[in-house]
Inverse folding.
């Protein structure tokens, strides 16, 4: 789990751009992201205490942004913009 406000997301964004993992929406705020080994990670994007929180069930340490989280997040932000959130 990491916050878009406090985590260093630049590296994770670059990794997400390089690998371009497939992201599937389960429901608004919940996404399935394809891992490199044919596995899938579940990512949740939501707001808590004024921060944008991203939760991914991969092995990345808490507080460190991962590429799955950023890939899901970019879709989430685009969907949120469409919905006017
Ligand atoms: Zn992850």
């Amino acid at each position: 789990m990491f916050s878009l406000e406090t985590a260093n997301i630049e590296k994770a964004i670059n990794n997400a751009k390089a690998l371009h993992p497939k992201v599937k929406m389960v429901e608004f705020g919940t996404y399935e992201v394809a891992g490199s080994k044919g596995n899938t990670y579940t990512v949740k994007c939501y707001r808590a205490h004024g921060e944008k929180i991203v939760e991914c069930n991969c092995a990345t340490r808490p507080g460190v942004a991962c590429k799955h989280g950023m890939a899901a997040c970019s879709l989430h932000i685009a969907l949120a913009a469409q919905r006017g959130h």
